[in-house]
Design goal:
alpha/beta; 12 helices; five-stranded mixed β-sheet
Length: 307
């Protein structure tokens, strides 16, 4: 059996076709599609994206049995939306073996290879997920309007907040000021008000500004570096909450992995994150891609079917 691993996030839908081997998962092909997040593209749009992934995988599989591992942003975050996601996935699977999980569970499986520990996922949104001795807990993931601290959406909003302070002298102007002007085509700083009125509720548009924070920080902007440091502190707070609830006090070292576009900032966010984490935590690079994590979960849960 081949396995189609799908990581449906808020920015894109990453799809990889895997062949399970004695050495693990061997990639047989990759496809990137637009986001399938139901809150952004609706139920029909979600199903259309997932159907394109399945059609591509079946063509690549050339008649071989196929399993589909759906890791979908927003799954498990509301009965109605979860039911809609399950129905769409079952329809797309069309009788093939499949599982549906939240993308953060797949991130944990990918980051830590199904081992106990905690993963932080910070892409368009943010959430953490931990597993300890059979107990699991998620923290964060309150969505763009209510939370998602440390995510791309949060970074984009913070970039605009920092821009206003640099514009009127509450903070020294740095590279971030000109980067925002150029990106948004602002002729006058107060043009930002009209932009915010049009786009502030659009998580995709605001998340697209997150790389400006990284670029400005790399160019020495103090405000941008402060944003990344605060993002790290927010992400560490998610980890701390999970440790308090499901990890035994005074226990062994806890591996903490990370997945998502926020971490493309590299050392600019990973170094402050390592400092902000509790002392017993060890920051570790992810072992696999998120769609491989989804495939690992299907292998674990459907082992007799995939042999």
């Amino acid at each position: 059996m081949l396995i189609l691993g799908i990581d449906g996030g808020g920015t894109k839908t990453a799809c990889t076709l895997f062949a399970p081997t004695d050495r693990g998962l061997e990639p047989r092909g990759r496809l990137t599609l637009p986001t399938c997040h139901h809150a952004q593209v609706g139920r029909d749009g979600m199903r259309d994206v997932l159907a394109k992934a399945a059609t591509w995988a079946r063509a690549e599989a050339a008649g071989a049995p196929l399993g589909i591992a759906f890791a979908i942003c927003g799954y498990g975050e509301g009965a109605e939306s979860s039911r809609a996601i399950e129905e769409a996935c079952a329809d797309v699977a069309n009788g093939d073996s499949h599982i549906v999980v939240n993308d953060v569970e797949a991130a944990w499986a990918a980051g830590l290879d199904l081992a106990d520990g905690i993963v932080i996922i910070a892409g368009t949104g943010s959430i953490a997920y931990g597993v300890s001795d059979g107990r699991a807990m998620r923290c964060g993931g309150w969505d763009y309007l209510l939370g998602d601290e440390g995510s791309g959406g949060w970074l984009g909003k913070e970039a605009l907040f920092a821009y206003t302070r640099q514009a009127d002298g509450r903070a020294a102007r740095g590279p971030l000021f000109e980067l925002v002007n150029r990106e948004l085509g602002l002729g006058d700083p107060f043009d930002l008000i009209a932009y915010a009125n049009r786009h502030f509720a659009d998580r995709g548009a605001i998340s697209a500004l997150a790389p400006l924070v990284t670029q400005a920080a790399a160019e020495g902007d103090a405000g941008a570096r402060s944003i990344l440091a605060r993002a790290a502190e927010e992400e560490a707070a998610l980890v701390e909450a999970i440790i308090r609830e499901i990890f035994p006090a005074g226990g062994s070292e806890i591996p903490v992995s990370y997945i998502g576009g926020t971490f493309k900032a590299g050392a600019l966010i990973l170094n402050p994150l390592a400092r902000a984490l509790p002392a017993r935590c060890r920051l570790t690079a992810p072992r696999h891609t998120p769609e491989a994590g989804a495939a690992l979960l299907l292998l674990r849960d459907r082992a007799p079917e995939t042999r």
